[in-house]
Amino acid sequence: MTHSPAGEPPLRDVVFQRMDELTPAERKVARTLLARYPAAGLESTAALAAAAGTSKPTVLRLLARLGFGGYPDFQQRLRAEVTRSMSASPLARAQARRAAPPADSVFLRAVDARARVVARLRGTVPPPRSSGPSRCWPGAPGTSSSAAVTSPGWSPACSRCSSTS
Predict the structure, then answer these.
(1) Quick one: pLDDT at residue 2?
(2) 139 in the Ramachandran plot: left (φ > 0), alpha (ψ -120 to 50) or beta?
(3) What's the CATH code, domain 5-107?
């Protein structure tokens, strides 16, 4: 993982960590920035806004929320980060990636947090009423072969449908 000058985390990690704090329009800019990192941040505000489908003021609001005084400050930090990562040899970069603990990844921490939310939600969902097919049709198990289906997915002659309604 490449660190910016002053030992701060890479901008992509900062943006990713703060994603939940952003407005929907700011998230569009952040997603565009992350998807085309770092090149998108080295373009003009107009180009970044157009790529994200937002306005230049939205780009500037995102940067202000991230603590930058303006676009030049953001680009200066991004250029310093890129220069620092490019100046290291490929071997040194590979060794640094291997030395970094996997739990240090912002992405992996975010995935773990989302997995915990899903696990908690699983306990709030009631169990299904039936383990059988979700739609009934004439001749389906539990129906008479001559039963007519009055609406899609429901049959008054089906033992499952009539017992759950």
Answers:
(1) 40
(2) left
(3) 1.10.10.10
